[in-house]
Amino acid sequence: MLFRLVTATSTALHLHAIRWWREYSALIAVVVVIGVPAYIFFLAPPRAFPIDMFVHVDQGATLSNIATELAETGIIRSPLVFELFVRGIGGSRTIDAGTYRFDEPLSVISIARRLMRGDSGIPPVRVTFPEGLSVREMSEVAYDAVSQEFATAFFKEAKPYEGFLFPDTYLISTADTPAGLVAHMRQVFAAHTAMLEPGVQSSGRTLDEIIIMASLVEREANTDADRRIVAGILWDRLDLDMALQVDAVFGYILEKSAYAPTLEDLKINSPYNTYLYRGLPPTPIGNPGLGAIMAALEPTKTPYLYYLTGTDGTMYYARTFAEHQANRAKYLK
């Protein structure tokens, strides 16, 4: 009896399956016939997908504008399908601004997910800002490493913080903005100089004065020992109300790197001209490293009031102007 029941049940299921197949086989065929081409047309990458294509998404760009640009560059087939997919899986999420690289054909689904994650497909650029560079010179580094657009915006954002941008190596991704880089450089500066606050307070100088002095000695001397000696000389000249007569300021005034001033340059009417104007320049002339900042904060006390760098790269010091003149005749041949 049990055998007959199982056999009857199996037969009924088999007949049901046959009826289901007869009823729905046509529908399945229609889905296959329509669905596969639909996938190929709407979701699959275009046949002429542009390899190594870069697409820039502007800040605040609408989803419609992004979809249109992707279609115009041949990365997707249908802007409408792209928009529907992004809205369907992303809800209120937006696409991150930045530049995206597509190095292989991708489906609409993969492209949408990458853009929504902010996955640019471009490795970050490693940018090194050497110690002592001015904001103008840092902008030139950014121009070479990133782009002219980035460098121009960086200069505008960074200029008010001359001297307070820590020179270091930074990783810049396509999602990073010039303003974001400047903010990060200021944060790194603050982190490195926070421990110096007690020394600044006990020095009798302000942090601004220390950084301005550091920017001078960074350019005037090449070793930490010489920077400390030069800092001591310049602080003494300042206390004696003597003109600092720092040559490095002329590169800043004339926007020229590694510039040796002429006698005519010494007459330039600029508040940064430390031959004409006594005291420190109005602002730093570059962004000093920690060694130069420490030199300005903890200078070496000496009896010297003059110094020069000889043609052999060695620094020579003098107590009097007469000794200094003798050093010029001897070491600047």
Automatic annotation (TrEMBL):
GO terms for biological process: cell wall organization; peptidoglycan biosynthetic process. Its EC number is 4.2.2.29. The record marks E220 as: Important for catalytic activity. One of its GO terms (molecular function) is lytic endotransglycosylase activity. Keywords: Cell membrane, Cell wall biogenesis/degradation, Lyase, Membrane, Transmembrane, Transmembrane helix. It catalyses: a peptidoglycan chain = a peptidoglycan chain with N-acetyl-1,6-anhydromuramyl-[peptide] at the reducing end + a peptidoglycan chain with N-acetylglucosamine at the non-reducing end. The keyword Transmembrane helix applies. It holds the Pfam family YceG. It is a single-pass membrane protein. Functions as a peptidoglycan terminase that cleaves nascent peptidoglycan strands endolytically to terminate their elongation. Belongs to the transglycosylase MltG family. PANTHER family: ENDOLYTIC MUREIN TRANSGLYCOSYLASE. NCBIfam families: endolytic transglycosylase MltG. This is Endolytic murein transglycosylase. The gene is mltG.
